[in-house]
Amino acid sequence: MNVRSTSLITLSGGMLLSVFSLTGCMVGPKYKVPSAPAPPAYKEASPDAFKETADWHIAAPNDAVIRGAWWTVFNDAELNKLEPQVETANQTLKAADANLRAARANIRVQNADRYPTIGVSPLVQGERESANQPYFNSAIANNGEANLVVPLQVNYEVDLWGRIRRNIAAAKEESQATAADRQNVLLSLQSELALDYFELRSSDAEQKLLDDTVVQYQEALRVTSNRFSGGIAPKSDVTQAQTQLQAAKVQAADVAVQRAQFEHAIAILIGQPPASLTIPAAPISVELMPPVIPPGLPSQLLERRPDIAAAERRIAAANEQIGIARAAYFPTLSLSGLAGYQSTSITSLFTPSSFVYGLGPTLGETFFDGGRRRGVSEEAVAGYEQNAANYRQSVLTAYQQVEDNLVALRVLSDEARQQRQATASAVESERIFNNRYVGGVDTYLQVITAQTTALNNERNDIDILRRRMDATVLLIKVLGGGWDRTQLPAQ
What we know:
Strands 1, 2, 3, 4 and 5 form a five-stranded antiparallel beta sheet that branches. The protein is an alpha+beta fold. The chain is built from ten helices and five strands; from the N terminus they run ααααβββααααββαα. Helix 4 runs antiparallel to helix 5 (163-229).
């Protein structure tokens, strides 16, 4: 290789390397988070709702403290044992994890466009020309000789208008949205497990109540049978007592089915077949007070909900698409280079005289595309507006969900107090009517009415407590479960 060739190669290589680091301006709008309505306070929250408790603290925006184990506020050892298994074994969450890995891999795919592609494509070719072809020149014919080429090819697109950078940014923002989606899936699964768990414990309480009721009704049947045998009571008293007893047994069987189904649902949530999970019965007490969860301020909700964070990140990604669409209106600059060896013989292939190279830029501009770029640009703007509307709707829905559960907790608290009074009266009424029946004052029909009323009220006690626990779980869920935006992966 002569000195002139070496100098040209060095100069061309230096130009190519300097262009690799060249970046131009970025066309398209600069991203701003869309405004969303934020009332100063929740309508259904009491003043005490903004106070911190020993178990729950108001989340501050951008607070870096992770409070993922939100279920511990219920102080239930069995629930504390079950909940962590969701994150390690639930198959729906594993699918979300895979989706997140795919989104992160896409960042690497888009980031690769910042660098040149380098490849080699060796060629071994032989040919023979016909001596009988028109204008055949035997002096220059290449009959029977090989053509050996070993080229190293380099291609690079200069990101003059920010298309590549915006593609990378969009991939990062979509990855953040996918990470928030993953957290939302986890929170939903954990909440579903807590809801199923308190349904199961309510079933335990109902089962105990009905089992005790069956024992009570069996005693009532014994009393009526003795009175009938002694000629004091009619046969109808016995049949009515038998009906009450059998009805209570049927209700107990129904509750047993419900409990088994909730246990099966919990097994699936923690990634186990139903046959491998048995949760010992532990009736929930109607005297239990659900933990108080302060909702904080509405403005903080935007920082605490993973679904809202995902919606906001997708607006940012849609904003990048507008810039990508606008970059298509400007020229593209590509650089291509080739260096290698070419010879007709393997023995001389890698000699200086066989060295070949080429380097040149390509500037491209589309003058007419039938409105394609305009359509792509309008589509990108519409996509941004759609994502912005989805974001605002997510915010409004989040406010509604918080308000719904706040009012549910407030009303159910009053309802529980009134129901306990009603239950106490019904139980006392049952005792009075039973004594009056034994004393021969009232009929057994009045006893049955009192028994039914007392049982219904006691079951209502349990149901109201279940609804209060459910509303508490749902309030924690709609407040983000202790999550905040600082847990998103950094760009």
